[in-house]
Design brief:
Elements: E1 2-3, E2 13-17, E3 23-27, E4 42-44, H1 57-85, H2 93-101, H3 104-107, H4 111-130, H5 141-149, H6 155-174, H7 201-213, H8 217-229, H9 233-237, E5 245-246, E6 249-253, E7 260-264, H10 267-275, H11 296-312, H12 321-328, H13 330-334
Antiparallel strand pairs: 1-2, 2-3, 3-4, 5-6, 6-7
Helix pairs in contact: 4-6, 7-8, 7-11, 8-12
C-alpha cells in the first residue's frame, strides 16, 4: 500500500493499485494517533464510486474533498480529547466540560447544536486557560460578566456564550460543586425578544406561489405544510419518503427536542406532497435545482430569493423560522394578527 500524502491527496491517505489500472483509496490513521471511536480504515470516497483512476480529475477531487473533511474532524476530536483529559479531576471548567461532553443532555442535541456548543465551550476554556483554570467555586458574577463584555459588539455570539455559561454552571450545581448559580439571579440569561412578526395563511400562500414561480415547488409545499402542522424547517428539510414521511402522515423524531410526533395529513396536503415528489430522490421536499434535500445554506438562499420576490410585489418581509410559531399562535388561528 502506498502513502500518497506527498501527491496532495491528504494526510493518511493510502492507495493500492489494482490489476485493471484502477486504485483502491483508503484513509488509515496510525493507532497512536487515532481517537478511541475513530475507524481503523475508511474507504475513499465515502459516497459514490469506490474504485477509480487517480488521473481522473472527478475521482481525485472526490478523494481530496473527503480527506480534507475527515482530517478536520480528526483534528477536532484530538483537540477535544486532549482538553478533557489533560487536567485530571480538578473542579475547574475543563473537568466540567469533560462531564458535559459525556452527558446525555449533550448527546441528545442535534449535530448542528453540538457544534455550536463546542465552539462556545472552546472560547470559554481558552479564557479559563489564560487564568490557569480557576476552580468553578471561585468564579463570581462580575468575573463572568467581564468575559461576556468582550463580545459586547457581537450580540449573537454573546448570547450563545451566556447560554453555555448557564448550562455549565447549572451542571456544576447539579454536581454539588457550587451551592448556587452566581449569574442566575436577575434574569441574566433571558434574551430580549423583539416583537414577533407572525405569518398568516395568506402570507403562506403568497410565499408558496412565489416559490413555484421561481422553480421551487418543493419549497412551496414545505411552506404550506409547515404552516399547517407547525414543524421546524430542519425537520421538514431532511424528511424522506418511507422514513419520516409515510404516505398519509409524518412520523419523525424532532432534531431539537428528540420528541416523537405522529401527524396525519389531510388529503390536500397529501396531494401537494405527492405532486412534488422526484422519482430519483426519496426527499419529501426536494430542491428544484438538485432534486435532493436542501442544505441549510441552500434553503436560506432559496427562501431569501422568494422573500425578495414577495416584498417586491408589496408582501410582508417574514422569516422561515417564525413559520412554526405562527402555526400554533392563537392570534393567527383566529385571524387577528395584523403584524407591522
Amino acid at each position: 500500500m502506498t502513502d500518497t500524502t506527498a501527491a496532495g491527496l491528504g494526510r493518511y491517505v493510502c492507495v493500492r493499485p489494482k490489476k485493471d489500472g484502477t486504485h483502491r483509496v483508503t484513509m488509515v490513521v496510525p493507532k497512536n494517533l487515532r481517537p478511541n471511536d475513530w475507524p481503523k480504515c475508511i474507504r475513499l470516497p465515502e459516497v459514490g464510486v469506490r474504485y477509480g483512476r487517480l488521473d481522473d480529475a472527478k475521482f481525485r477531487k472526490a478523494i481530496t474533498a473527503d480527506a480534507d473533511r475527515l482530517n478536520r474532524r480528526l483534528d477536532e476530536k484530538r483537540r477535544w480529547e486532549a482538553v478533557v483529559d489533560c487536567q485530571g479531576r480538578s473542579k475547574n471548567l475543563v473537568e466540567l466540560a469533560r462531564i458535559y461532553l459525556k452527558s446525555e443532555r449533550y448527546r441528545n442535541l442535534s449535530p448542528g447544536r453540538q457544534a455550536k456548543n463546542r465552539k462556545s465551550l472552546g472560547w470559554i476554556l481558552e479564557w479559563s486557560e489564560a487564568r490557569r483554570h480557576p476552580e468553578v467555586a471561585a468564579l463570581t458574577e462580575s468575573t463572568i460578566v467581564d468575559f461576556l463584555d468582550i463580545y459586547a459588539d457581537k450580540p449573537a455570539t454573546r448570547y450563545d456564550l451566556r447560554s453555555m455559561w448557564n448550562v455549565l454552571l447549572k451542571l456544576a450545581k447539579k454536581e454539588r460543586w457550587i451551592a448556587d448559580v452566581p449569574l442566575e439571579r436577575g434574569g441574566w440569561y433571558i434574551r430580549r425578544q423583539s416583537e414577533a412578526v407572525l405569518w398568516t395563511e395568506e402570507d403562506a400562500q403568497r410565499y408558496a406561489a412565489m416559490a413555484r414561480f421561481l422553480g421551487e415547488p418543493g419549497l412551496a409545499a414545505m411552506i404550506i405544510v409547515m404552516m399547517r402542522i407547525g414543524q421546524r424547517p430542519g425537520d421538514m428539510r431532511t424528511a424522506r419518503w418511507g422514513h419520516e414521511y409515510v404516505p398519509g402522515r409524518f412520523v419523525l423524531s424532532q432534531h431539537k427536542t428528540r420528541s416523537k410526533v405522529n401527524i396525519p395529513m389531510p388529503s390536500d396536503l397529501r396531494d401537494m406532497i405527492k405532486a412534488v415528489r422526484r422519482p430519483e430522490s426519496d426527499t419529501v421536499f426536494p430542491s428544484g435545482r438538485t432534486g435532493r434535500a436542501f442544505t441549510v445554506g441552500e434553503l436560506q438562499a432559496r427562501f431569501s430569493e422568494v422573500r425578495e420576490g414577495v416584498t417586491y410585489e408589496g408582501g410582508r418581509r417574514l422569516t422561515l423560522n417564525m413559520l412554526r410559531h405562527s402555526a400554533v399562535c392563537p392570534d393567527v388561528l383566529l385571524g387577528t394578527n395584523t403584524g407591522p
